[in-house]
Design a protein that fits this description.
Layout (H helix, E strand, L loop, with lengths): L9 H23 L12 H7 L12 H10 L1 H44 L7 H6 L1 H24 L2 H14 L10 H8 L15 H4 L6 H13 L15 H4 L1 H10 L4 H6 L1 H11 L5 E5 L2 E4 H4 L4 H8 L4 H13 L1 H12 L6 H28 L4 H5 L1 H13 L4 H52 L11 H15 L6 H20 L6 H21 L3 H10 L13 H10 L3 H13 L3 H9 L4 H21 L1 H20 L12 H5 L1 H22 L4 E3 L2 E3 L1 H24 L8 H29 L3 H21 L34 H12 L5 E4 L4 E4 L5 E3 L1 H38 L7 H14 L8 H12 L4 H31 L1 H20 L6 H14 L16 H14 L3 E2 L15 E2 H13 L3 H24 L7 H13 L4 H10 L2 H10 L5
Parallel strand pairs: 8-9
Antiparallel strand pairs: 1-2, 3-4, 5-6, 6-7
Helix pairs in contact: 1-4, 1-6, 1-29, 1-30, 3-4, 4-6, 4-7, 4-8, 6-10, 6-12, 10-12, 14-16, 17-21, 18-19, 18-22, 19-22, 19-26, 22-23, 22-25, 22-26, 22-28, 24-25, 28-30, 29-30, 31-33, 31-34, 31-35, 34-35, 34-36, 35-38, 36-38, 37-38, 38-41, 40-44, 41-42, 41-45, 44-46, 45-47, 46-47, 46-48
């Protein structure tokens, strides 16, 4: 029969590809279990209230039309639903495709079985495929993998969550009406089973497994072969009867899953179940189904009468005591044996060749014992809830006198022994041919030399010529020369030659000559080695691979993590030994990858990457104890550095030398430094290790571990250091910034000090990680202003190996510390409670006249959250400005449907304003307009003031950043400034248009160097309408009496309590108008100029002696407004008559 898995065998390739796909689907399910969107859990009342109308289970299908109408009729709900869809559609699609692939898998399997039945594959039927070893394995695996998918998805992705995800996919994906879509079938297959409810559902899991019918003949044949055959030929590797259950463990787990497709056997076939239990579960009841997915038969078979009855024999107390005692008592002797073998010099190439069978037997016993004890003493929260399972486990623990540390030592010894044996044996296998040639040549030369000795031609002391012996040795040498390495008969011939050499020594009385004896003994030794060389076969490595399988402990190994970490704490060099355990674990990857590799599937990379990265994360978790210990010791170093050690002055009196020496403290300081370097050295001693497809470099592991601890400490300091009281106080902000600055400086100094002792670039790591923490937190805070949010797993700043921790919100407004700091600054500098003075770049309290926030405060912020923190704060302020400008733009464009009065009033004023020139009394006309708009400005004013306030803050931050850049990177600042000017000149002249990539890269540099002028920024794009100038003009005129603009420092005390900060107001108006075409700015200035001119003329006409207050206020505002744009100032001079401008400059009374 041709090879079943040959590439030209369509039947074999079809089933192989299917099984390969099954393994890939399971890997994807295991991967996705960690990416379930938190909102789909609806874990608390807030989530239910917020998402209850858009995240629904299958009950949605009963009220589909009503629910859709409810969403469509509510603009708020519709907008929220669309935003939710945009943010989660990618993950919803991925979950659905995985769910659909399960249904496709079983459909394809049924289709393949149908083709076999119809004779589609010539000369192939179910019977012929089961007659082939590979075919039998694949058909059994195909059914087993489908059952496994169902069990895994039910265990890891709750039924209600599956339903909610499927409903979301149905609602959000328009292709659902397509005939190709299988969503109905997928929903039927994966609807909630009730598995995760407190009370186990009846007929579980048989009803679940019946949802897609499978041919009963196929199921029966699979179960029949799994019951009776050794389909993987494992019994040959485990010759002893006591190892039978371990030898057939994989087959037993397959049978366990497949029996759920034929529950009649589990319910009523007592004889068959007794046979199955006696063969597969005579001494075990906890099994690993797939990659550490553990099940306890006494729990899962509880509802099946025949299965439960058959298992009762295994679960009898006497039997359990017997097994537990036997396995528990074998740990100590096995530890002694492995310790003996691991003594240096005990396992050499020669010793291994002599003793390989004994070593394999020892390893077999070790693995067998470890497996049983790990499975039957495991502590799983699920098992502890079940009283019966808890009793069974406690009985095993008691009878085996279980000591987890001893079991770990045995696992460590076993892994080391396997690693050493495998490495030496691989070398022997590589050098086998070369070694054979050397030994053969040496034997041949020795025999030829002996022949020459007896010929008399070669003088040797007291040896007489003997032609018979000469001929005999010559003949023997020819026999040696004819030996072939691959020929089985050669080994028998070598044995005969060795006997002949022993006999010739005895019968020809050659003992008298020591030289001849030495020649003969060396030749015999070479021949013995040749026999051993012939016995070096790859089978030994395969046997080692099979008996060393640790896939059952893929999850259980975590229970040993505290022991490993405690060992590393005591002795950092333990890391070298732990490498053997990590390599033993990585061998478990063979299980899911074997078929994928055979099928040459594209899934090989993603599946191996998933399992390898899971193992890598575990290795990092174990070894994280080293950076953790280093940081614990570094905490004390920080304390000594910052609080205990005194700074040496430049001059020191001799009698004070002892006080500054601080010998005890300095000794403790040195001791801590040494212990940190010892920990780092322990990590570095581990060799580079390949786990699956990922190579673990110890230096990189150490650096990542240090980064992880640093991120934890800094994040915690930032989170707890920036929590504020509900009442804003300038003193509190200052105190918190100073305290946080000291903590950050302490970490930075210690990191700088310790970097040379652990051979890392400490300050580089510090800068990178602080910047990453800030950027991540800014990104998450800015999510509140974005429709398409950046999820944690999508963030460029979040890392799986060095994760930035997420802390719960403390004020229900801000996501994290950067938001709290930004909002605290906004509260303190509220334009209604404070005033900004351009001359000092400071905010002052209107009541106490004390400074609230100034350049020194920004310096404190920079020392607390670094320069990257200031840039992050600036970015957050930009988002807030954009958000408010969009609201203001919405008002101007009349997008707010609720504000009909706004539109009616302002549209009528727009029509009337053109006739203002002809009004007999302009003051009365404008006052009338103002009176009509008094009630519509409240929300508009709030947004305007916030924009102005934030713009001033951004300007102050840019000043500090630029100042820092000039001091710390003078050449960079000059280069960037020159480049900025050159680019602007080129762009304005039209000679050059820079690319978007270049602009994006440069803007990053400009942001950090403070070379961005916030007042010139275009934040949003909006359509321009001449009418907007009238609206803004009316807004300004309506508030002229309320704004406070300081013209002279002497009148700071003249501000009324109901006034608002005029600088923030003017900056905001400038920013709003800047977002539109420059002609709008001209229109606005013209309107205000006309206002001033008209009132002045009217004033002259009635022969008033003083300039009206409205004129002075408007001129004062325009003076401030035009400060931020040279073109505005020039245009103002054109619009206002020179006499009025001169009068305002000279005669204007101080405003109040």
């Amino acid at each position: 029969m041709p090879d079943f898995l040959a590439e030209n065998n369509v039947c074999g390739q079809t089933i192989l590809q299917l099984v390969s796909r099954g393994n890939a689907i399971i890997a994807e399910l295991l991967r996705l279990k960690d990416y379930i969107p938190q909102t789909y859990r609806l874990a608390n009342k807030e989530d239910v209230q917020k998402y209850g109308d858009i995240i629904m289970d299958f009950s949605y299908f009963k009220i589909e039309e009503a629910q859709n109408n409810k969403i469509e009729n509510s603009e708020q709900l519709q907008d929220f639903d669309e935003e939710f869809r945009d943010n989660h559609i990618e993950m919803i699609n991925r979950f659905y495709l995985t769910f659909e692939s399960i249904h496709t898998y079983i459909t394809d399997l049924n289709h393949f079985l149908g083709e076999l039945e119809e004779g589609f594959h010539i000369h192939q039927s179910l019977e012929t495929i089961f007659a082939d070893m590979e075919g039998k394995q694949l058909l059994c695996e195909a059914l087993y993998l489908y059952g496994l998918m169902l069990l895994i998805i039910d265990a890891y992705i709750d039924g209600t969550i599956r339903e909610r995800l499927l409903v979301s996919y149905y609602r959000y994906t328009p292709q659902r009406s397509d005939t190709q879509s299988q969503i109905d079938d997928v929903c039927k297959l994966l609807r909630d089973t009730g598995f995760n409810t407190p009370r186990k559902p009846a007929n579980y899991p048989e009803d679940y497994f019946r949802r897609v019918p499978i041919k009963s003949t196929y199921v029966d044949i699979v179960i029949g072969h799994l019951r009776s055959d050794d389909i993987y030929g494992q019994l040959a590797v485990y010759p002893l009867p006591k190892h039978r259950s371990t030898a057939l463990a994989h087959q037993a787990s397959m049978l366990y899953v497949c029996l759920f497709f034929s529950t009649n056997i589990l319910h009523s076939q007592t004889a068959i179940m007794r046979e199955i239990v006696d063969k597969y579960f005579p001494d075990n009841w906890v099994i690993s189904v797939y990659m550490g997915f553990i099940v306890n038969l006494s729990e899962t078979w509880e509802a099946f009468k025949a299965a439960k009855l058959a298992l009762n024999n295994t679960l009898e107390t006497v039997n359990i005591k017997g097994y537990a005692n036997s396995y528990g008592s074998s740990i100590v002797p096995l530890l002694k044996s492995t310790n003996l073998k691991l003594k240096e010099g005990n396992i050499t190439k020669d010793n291994l060749l002599k003793d390989v069978n004994n070593i394999i037997n020892l390893l077999r016993d070790c693995n067998f014992t470890i497996r049983w004890l790990m499975l039957h003493t495991n502590i799983k929260p699920k098992f502890d809830k079940n009283k019966k399972l808890k009793q069974l486990r406690e009985l095993v623990l008691t009878e085996s006198k279980f000591d987890q540390v001893q079991l770990f030592k045995l696992l460590l010894n076993t892994a080391q022994l396997e690693l050493i044996t495998r490495d030496i044996y691989k070398n022997l296998l590589t050098e086998k041919e070369k070694q054979w040639k050397e030994l053969k040549e040496e034997s041949f030369k020795s025999l030829v030399e002996l022949s020459e000795v007896f010929s008399g031609t070669k003088p040797l002391t007291r040896i007489q010529k003997n032609e018979n012996l000469q001929q005999w040795f010559l003949e023997i040498s020819k026999q040696v020369e004819s030996l072939a390495q691959d020929d089985g008969a050669s080994s028998r011939k070598i044995v005969q030659l060795i006997q002949a050499l022993e006999e010739v020594q005895e019968f020809h009385q050659l003992e008298s000559n020591m030289q001849v004896i030495q020649f003969l003994s060396e030749t015999r030794k070479c021949m013995h080695q040749m026999i051993r060389n012939m016995n070096i076969k790859e089978d030994v490595l395969i046997t080692l691979q099979i008996i060393g399988d640790l896939s059952y402990a893929w999850e259980l190994i975590d229970s040993f993590t505290p022991i490993m970490q405690l060992g590393i704490k005591r002795e950092p060099t333990l890391v070298i030994k732990l490498r053997a355990i990590f390599l033993k674990l990585s061998s478990a990857l063979e299980v899911p990858l074997l078929r994928i590799n055979q099928a040459h599937s594209e899934d090989l990379i993603s599946v191996s990457q998933y399992y390898s990265s899971e193992l890598e994360i575990y290795v990092r978790k174990v070894l994280q104890i080293i950076p953790k210990m280093m940081f614990e010791k570094m905490a004390r170093i920080i304390e000594i550095q910052t609080s205990i050690l005194k700074e040496l002055p430049t001059r020191l009196d001799k009698d004070k030398l002892k006080d500054y020496a601080q010998l005890n403290e300095r000794f403790e300081f040195a001791e801590l430094t040494h212990s940190i370097s010892v920990f780092s050295q322990g990590m570095r001693m581990m060799k580079s290790t390949l786990v699956g497809v990922i190579c673990l470099d110890p230096k990189q592991l150490l650096e990542d571990g240090i980064r992880k601890e640093l991120v934890q400490y800094i994040s915690k300091a930032l989170h707890s250091g920036l929590i504020f009281n509900q009442r804003a106080k300038a003193e509190e902000l200052e105190q918190r910034l100073v305290a946080l600055g000291q903590i950050m400086d302490g970490y930075k100094r210690s990191f700088e000090y310790i970097q040379d002792y652990i051979n890392i670039n400490g300050l580089k790591i510090w800068q990178e990680e602080v910047t990453r923490i800030i950027n991540y937190n800014v990104e998450q805070e800015c999510n509140g202003f974005l429709r398409n949010k950046v999820h944690t797993w999508e963030s460029a700043f979040q890392s799986r190996y060095v994760p930035i921790p997420l802390y719960p919100s403390t004020d229900n407004i801000s996501e994290n510390f950067i938001g709290r700091l930004a909002r605290e600054i906004i509260r303190l500098t509220d334009p209604r409670q404070s005033v900004y003075l351009d001359q000092t770049s400071s905010w002052y309290d209107i009541k106490s006249h004390k400074p609230i926030l100034n350049k020194e405060t920004i310096t404190l912020v920079a020392s607390a959250i670094e320069i990257s923190g200031l840039v992050g704060l600036d970015r957050l302020f930009s988002f807030m400005i954009i958000s408010n400008l969009q609201k203001l733009s919405g008002f101007l464009e009349n997008k707010h449907t609720k504000t009909n009065s706004w539109h009616n009033i302002l549209s009528s004023i727009q029509k009337e304003i053109g006739a203002a020139d002809s009004a007999p009394n302009p003051l009365k006309f404008y006052q009338n307009c103002i009176n009509r708009t008094t009630k519509i400005w409240n929300e508009f004013l709030d947004c305007v003031l916030l924009v102005g306030q934030l713009q001033l803050m951004r300007n102050l931050i840019a000043f500090h950043l630029n100042k820092s850049c000039k001091f710390n990177a003078k050449n960079l600042e000059s280069s960037l400034r020159s480049l900025s000017k050159a680019l602007l000149l080129d762009v304005t002249s039209g000679d050059y248009t820079p690319s978007e990539d270049l602009m994006a890269n440069l803007s990053h540099y400009f942001d950090y160097s403070g070379l961005n002028n916030p007042f010139n920024k275009i934040y949003i794009t909006s359509r321009c309408d001449e009418g907007y100038a009238v609206i803004v003009f009316m807004f300004v005129v309506a508030h002229l009496n309320k704004i406070f603009l300081l013209r002279q420092l002497g009148n700071i005390n003249k501000r009324n309590s109901d006034q608002i900060d005029g600088t923030a107001f003017a900056v905001a108006v400038h920013t709003i108008i800047k977002q539109f075409h420059s002609k709008l700015n001209n229109s606005f200035i013209k309107l205000l100029s006309n206002y001033i001119t008209q009132i002045t003329r009217y004033n002259i006409s009635i022969k008033a002696s003083e300039l009206p207050v409205e004129v002075s206020l408007a001129m004062n505002f325009l003076e401030t407004y035009t400060n931020y744009s040279e073109s505005s100032r020039n245009f103002l001079k054109e619009c206002i008559p020179e006499e009025i401008y001169h009068l305002e400059q000279t005669l204007i009374a101080p405003t109040g």
